[in-house]
Amino acid sequence: MLEFLEAEGIDPALVREIRAFREKNPLTEDMQARVPAPRYRYYGKEIWEHAAAALLCGKNLLLTGGKATGKNVLSENLAMAFGRPAWNVSFHVNVDAAGLIGSDTFEDGQVRFRPGPIYRCAQSGGFGILDEINMAKNEALAVLHSALDFRRVIDVPGYERIPMADTTRFIATMNYGYAGTRELNEALTSRFAVIQMPTISPENLDRLLAGEFPALKKKYREQAGRLFFDLQKKCENAEISTKALDLRGLLDALDLMREGVPAGAALDMGITYKAFDGYEQGLIRDAIAMRLSAKLTRAELFSE
Ligand SMILES: Nc1ncnc2c1ncn2[C@@H]1O[C@H](COP(=O)(O)OP(=O)(O)OP(=O)(O)O)[C@@H](O)[C@H]1O
Ligand SMILES: [Mg+2]
Question: Given this structure, which CATH class describes domain 2-196?
Answer without folding.
Answer: alpha beta
